[in-house]
């Protein structure tokens, strides 16, 4: 089960999360989580906006920024978003299931 943040804004239920696909889309647009400390004005909002891509792609940037402005405890929010953002990468690096019979053994030639 992927990590998510859920809340209601203007009577609409919103679920923020990242998937492998949305993280890749963010990277293709130039987002890098490592830039968050060097470029916080753009990267923090990009991190928040990216969490809308999986379930609320139709939200315009102005609405996303409006929602962000009304979110309390922003420091903890950004911490949780960063944790969620890293989850798809962790899944990408997971080792295969030993019991499924499909594990591929590989070797080098040097």
Description:
- With 110 residues, the protein is mostly helical.
- The chain has one domain.
- 44% of the residues lie in helices and 9% in strands.
- Strands 1-2 form a two-stranded antiparallel sheet.
- Strand 1 (5-9) and strand 2 (12-16) form a beta hairpin.
- The protein starts with a strand and ends in an 18-residue tail after the last helix.
DSSP strand tally: 2
Structural class: mainly alpha
Low-confidence stretches: none
Helix content: 40-55%
Order of helices and strands: EEHHHH
The number of distinct helices, counting runs of at least 4 residues, comes to 4
**Intertermini distance:** 40 Å
The major beta sheet can be summarized as: 2 strands, antiparallel
Mean pLDDT: 92
Shape: elongated
Structurally, the number of domains stands at 1
Quick gist of this model?
The chain has 110 residues and is mainly alpha-helical. The protein has helices at residues 20-28, 40-50, 61-69, 74-92; strands at residues 5-9, 12-16. The protein contains 4 helices and 2 strands; from the N terminus they run E-E-H-H-H-H.
Per-chain topology:
Layout: E1 5-9, E2 12-16, H1 20-28, H2 40-50, H3 61-69, H4 74-92
Antiparallel strand pairs: 1-2
Descriptive keywords:
about 45% helix, about 10% strand, two-stranded antiparallel ribbon
